[in-house]
């Protein structure tokens, strides 16, 4: 599709408001991985399945492909800074994204971030190719929820939901 304007397409996709998540995992060697993701969706209640996708060019791809579990941390409205922190790549100079964070440990050793609206602890069930991304389907084994307003992203910026 040589005439397809991918930049304009990305802008069109940005019209869709979405929640913001940080997906976290622990590799077999103990390495922690985490990244900000808004490509999250529910799939099924029975069994409890959710999905998200990750770029094939992500440095964290191998960790998520091979980990037994990952956690989907659904961010609260006051966690935009945490979202930004996990959206940046790790470097030798910046160290681990987790080094200054206080977190609990969930299924498979995946980090559970504090203060989130919800946390879904998922078994790394299946993966499917999807263009320049890999689609992950997780079986939710445990979850927790707090009554907090969610962080929303639309049009390239964080948004606040209006009251009903």
What's this entry about, in short?
This protein is mainly beta. The protein is built from three helices and twelve strands. The longest helix has 8 residues, at 6-13.
Structure description:
The protein has helices at residues 6-13, 61-66, 80-87, and strands at residues 18-19, 21-26, 32-37, 41-45, 48-55, 69-74, 104-105, 111-112, 118-130, 133-145, 152-154, 157-159. The strands form three sheets. The chain has a seven-stranded antiparallel sheet. It has a single domain (6-156), classed as Electron Transport, Fmn-binding Protein, Chain A (Pnp Oxidase, Chain A), CATH 2.30.110.10. It has 164 residues and is mainly beta. The protein is globular. The protein is built from three helices and twelve strands.
Give the number of DSSP strands: 12
Query: How much helical structure, as a percent, in the residues?
Result: 10-25%
Order of helices and strands: HEEEEEHEHEEEEEE
- Provide the structure class: mainly beta
Number of domains: 1
Biggest sheet: strand arrangement: 3-2-6-9-10-5-4
Beta-strand content: 35-45%
Indicate the CATH architecture: Roll
Query: What is the 3D shape?
Result: globular
CATH class placement: Mainly Beta
Give the SSE layout.
Layout: H1 6-13, E1 18-19, E2 21-26, E3 32-37, E4 41-45, E5 48-55, H2 61-66, E6 69-74, H3 80-87, E7 104-105, E8 111-112, E9 118-130, E10 133-145, E11 152-154, E12 157-159
Antiparallel strand pairs: 1-11, 2-3, 2-6, 4-5, 5-10, 6-9, 7-8, 9-10, 11-12
């Amino acid at each position: 599709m040589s005439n397809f304007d991918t930049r304009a397409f990305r802008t069109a996709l940005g019209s869709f408001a979405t929640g913001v998540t940080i997906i976290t995992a622990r590799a077999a060697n103990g390495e922690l991985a985490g990244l900000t993701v808004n490509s999250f969706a529910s799939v099924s209640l029975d069994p409890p399945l959710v999905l998200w996708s990750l770029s094939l060019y992500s440095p964290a791809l191998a960790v998520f492909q091979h980990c037994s579990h990952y956690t989907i941390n659904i961010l609260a409205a006051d966690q935009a800074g945490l979202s930004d922190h996990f959206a940046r790549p790790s470097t030798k100079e910046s160290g681990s994204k987790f080094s200054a964070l206080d977190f609990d440990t969930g299924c498979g050793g995946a980090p559970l971030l504090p203060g989130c609206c919800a946390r879904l602890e998922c078994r790394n069930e299946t993966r499917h190719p999807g263009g320049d991304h890999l689609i992950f389907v997780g079986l939710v084994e445990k979850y927790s929820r707090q009554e907090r307003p969610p962080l929303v992203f639309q049009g390239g910026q964080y948004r606040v939901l209006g009251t009903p």
